[in-house]
Automatic annotation (TrEMBL), chain B:
It comes from the Bacteria. Pfam families: EF-hand_5, MPAB_Lcp_cat. InterPro entries: EF-hand-dom_pair (IPR011992), EF_Hand_1_Ca_BS (IPR018247), EF_hand_dom (IPR002048), MPAB/Lcp_cat_dom (IPR018713). It comes from Streptomyces roseolilacinus. Residues 389-414, 415-450 form the EF-hand domain. This is EF-hand domain-containing protein. One of its GO terms (molecular function) is calcium ion binding.
Amino acid sequence: MDGNGRWAQRRALPRTAGHRAAETTVIDIIEAARAAGVEWLSLYAFSTENWNRPGTEVDYLMRLVRRVVRKHAPLLLARGIRCRFLGAADPRIPRELAQDFDDLATLTADNQGMTLTVAFDHGGRRDIVEAAKSLIRNGTPADDVTERVFADHLPFPDTPDVDLVIRTSGEQRISNFMLWQVAYAEWVFPEVLWPDFRASDFLTCLHTYQRRDRRFGGVPPQTNGDPS
Amino acid sequence: MTTGTTGTADKVPLFGPESQFRAFFDDPRWALAMIRATVLEAAHPQIGAALADNSTFVAHPWRRLRNTFLSMRRMFNADPAVREREAARLNRLHARMSGSDTRGRAYDAMDRAARAWVVATLYESAVTMCRLSGQPLDQDTMERMYAEYRTFLAALEGDAGELPEDLNDFWRYFDRVVEDELENTEAARIILYRLFDHLPAPALLDGAPTLWAAGRAVVSPLLGAITVASLPEPYRRRAGLAEMPGAPTLMQGAYLAAGLTRFLPEGWINAESIIEALSLSPDSDDPRARTVTALRARMKRASALLRLLTPLSGDTGPDPVPASSAAAEGRRSAEEFFRQVLDQTGDGHLDWPDLAAMARELATRLDLDEPEETRLYDAFAAWWRELQAALDTDGDGRVSAAEYAAAVPSLAGPALIRVAEVLFDVTDKDGSGTINADEHRALFRTAFHRDLTTTDGTYGRSAFVGDFLSFMSGRRRNTAYDPLLADA
């Protein structure tokens, strides 16, 4: 979800206006993904590094996210979307917002449709460190640690490997996003800024992905990737 | 059948299933009448002081309700041996309560006049509840019931001499006490104005704090108004209680409506199953617990939706749910532990009555007789002296939440270990050196927990002592001890 700030600057608006415009895109993309049959959608809303932004912008984002969560909670429930929040552990997150995250996750926990993971205050490295801590706390012997066992200690261990990462606004970096799960992900970098990103752009990205030849490190290009 | 003997009535047995007293057990009006009787009790200066100091009804009202209910049922059991044992237990329990009120007047829970007053309020409230709901008792029933209550008092006291023998004299006695002795005590004010405003959710509804708070906000003022309107007029005047327009009508309407439940099919309202269900905790292995867990999940979702739909502008109030990060790790803050476990009487301080209340709860659960009960109390008393010496830095004789927070690590002294050992000894009824499944169930009301470090289906001394210490000092949440000491 990159490019909110630049979107606003191009229109001579404050950066906060860009964040506000992003809300429409978020809802649009959730709906498009669901309609296209995507089962796992993750949005990178706020990274652990985003705390370094100016205090007023962070405050604004917190209030905005809270409003968005509350506004769309009934819709997400009605659409059968299971919502959850990855990260969201920092004490700087306002308590009311954390409560709303909890409430939305509780409310939609039994939904069977798409799983929407909102990475908020997320850092891929931190998740890996947490998994390591959890392994050590459990007293797992070093020889027993496999990729499978390790992945079980990551937050939300049911999350499958990521197939496709879409990074808007032309940025071509990983920026600490779900480092473990993106090991074999395909990447698409549309030039469009996030507030201008629409369902049609999302479908274009999906088509690009379908044409990709996923080899998972192997040689013979037999089939397209099976997302399991 | 007035003095000495308990239930050896010649005609109809006064106790047992036929008694008038038992007829009220499942009557919803009895709930309103009990609140009223408790206010009248608490308005008695001696009883009020004893309640304010010793009772756990503010912090753990549901546990208190359950214990009172079970005790009443035993006192009206058809078997005289059960009754005598319960009376002896109640006497021992009350003999441990004495002290002085805020104005320095001494109180003693064994005071004969005060105990007679308790029985008098129960009787008078039962009669009044029938009057208020439009089904007054006839003279014969009133006399018979009065005899029952006097026998109840005699079972506790040895004789019922403090209550007049004749019902006519009783009404004069009652009016005199209301006119001359009752005061606007702190305990009465707490019951009328604080208890229901702050009533914690019972174990069953613990997972839905929002729903509980919303329901409580509606019901609590109503209950207060109903109770005030049902109190005797002279007391309302003396205590300066508000007279609200419509309150008498509301009160009579409530009693009338509660009385209408008599048209429901028999067995629909059963106080015992209601109270048992309310104190059902989700971790218990009771078959009903699964239904409860499913219900709780639904309620949790409903309250989550309710919170999310609440308009943002009104969110300045305090959040009932603590930050989840601490809870997730199974630890609680010092403040939480102080409030939920240590401060049993809910007065904001830790002093002897708090620890005595823990001992009382444990002794009640284990159904202890002498001398085990005294051993347990003595162990708790030693722990109190240790706590007082270590924590009471300002020397006021009690431990405040701040003093406790400042010195948490020093809580696990030798006296606490002694408490754990004594608790193990008295729980281990057959003296086998281990706690078997039955003994475990007596204390915790649930079977062994799956991950318990048990060997061949028993619970050894060191594991028991270790778990108790980590609950009491390490502040670790514990599925077995939480329902025992922390639940409301």
